[in-house]
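Hey, resending since the last one bounced:
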Amino acid sequence: MASSPETTINPSEARHFGALAEDWWNPRGSSAMLHKLNPVRLRYIRAAVDSHWGGNGRDLRPLDGRRALDVGCGAGLLCEPLARLGAEVTGIDAAEENIAAAQAHAAQQGLTIDYRATGIESLGIEGAFDLVTSMEVIEHVSDPALFIRGLTQALAPGGLMILSTPNRTTLSRLAMITVGEGLGFIPKGTHNWNQFLPPAELESLLADAGLESFDLRGITFDPRTGFVLSDNIQLNYILCARRNS
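The structure tokens again:
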């Protein structure tokens, strides 16, 4: 009997997020927390892009001429800003409902983005993307090591990878599950705390795939200003990776 092909897709996770697709772009809806997270992610990404490719911080399209891949793109909250920064963007997601919502929203905005309903292990485009991003996704996949290998295979020589994910700490369990999901700020069943990755575990997976991780920053919540970059990695963190020289 033939063995099942390797996959990073967890079907129950894909169903959970696919059910949220129609509400994804509503900043007060079920994805409100992602809308609040997106600006701090984008600030980090913009700074990382400028640092990696020698940008000056003032260019409106620092990704002109570069290809970007967002993995686990949902309905395109990150893909659309990347396209506006000049990138030729591909977004992939396990849920077909998310891809349909992403395509419809991009069309309304007049943006051309290549959206595909697939897992990273099935994308079949190796070494093509200057920038590979995946925000709050690795904690939802069935095989984190295979997921990182897939991201690495898609990354072009000299490219930049940026990942963010919750840390596996007492604070993240309290804030994201007990309070976040318990009080309805985050849809119930979104997170499995046991699947959260501490930075050391993610950095080890990246190293095993031949990547060097750097610029680890925390993402914390400030009641006065919302989510901010911080040295505190107890709740959530974001980092860069590049191929070892």
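The longest strand covers residues 155-166.

Sorry for the duplicate.
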